[in-house]
Amino acid sequence: MSYVPNKPPDPLQAAIAELWRLRPPGPENLFAAPEFLLLKEALRTQYPNAGKPVFALGNALRNLGLPCELAAGRQHLSVPVDEAARRLHAALGAQTARRRHLIPLDLADDLPSLRFGPAVLRRLSAAELRTMVDTPRLERTSSSGLFEAERFAEFQWLLVEEVVSLDRPPEARAVPVLFTDMRQDFGRIEPHKGRFPSTVEDALFFLLLAPWEEWSRMPEVDWRGFRVPWVHTTDEDLFVRSLCANVLATL
Questions:
Q1: Which of 1, 6, 56, 230 is deepest in the core (most CB within 10 A)?
Q2: What pairing do the DSSP bridges indicate for beta strands 114-116 and 96-105?
Q3: Interior angle at CA 79, CA 15 and CA 19, nearest 5
């Protein structure tokens, strides 16, 4: 996600500065706090196309490390006020964001490194994994903040990247269930509905075309070349809730 060239307006930065002054553990209801309402008003006047974000703003503040909500000993993870204002300003003007899907292939044999389309199959170093999961953001938003990069670096990964269009307002991206079209038939049968994001399924389909049943050394035990226990997705969109383990599906 790239920053828009102009700097954030003063009301936005002033509102964030007020929120950053809140002392732990913060207000009982952040969304009703005067400081939060001040930020909402700044957005209403300066960013009329942003709609009326509430949950989206809450996600953004936590992703930036709202100091009053950080656990003890993690205050250093908070993004400085001017940088937080710049990132929020950029997020409000962004038209696209990048998503990374990390698929562990810990049960796979030693596969050759591959690059096809938006996907890469290879081993990742601990440093690369920390960058890809955005460990500072993870530490700000998770209760434990623990990511054992060294252990995860012991096996192969399938990494799939995509650039998504941010054509919905921040609140719809933060809580899409609230913007669901209720006119649809929720009882319909979808026999071929995917369990993973389409870009991930396309990459997995490519890999599954290989004759694994012929290559397997012990086909009587398991002819599959690999299994996918879970998928972890990171999203550059500041208004999307960041989870410690964003498990989309299991296979």
A1: 56
A2: unpaired
A3: 25
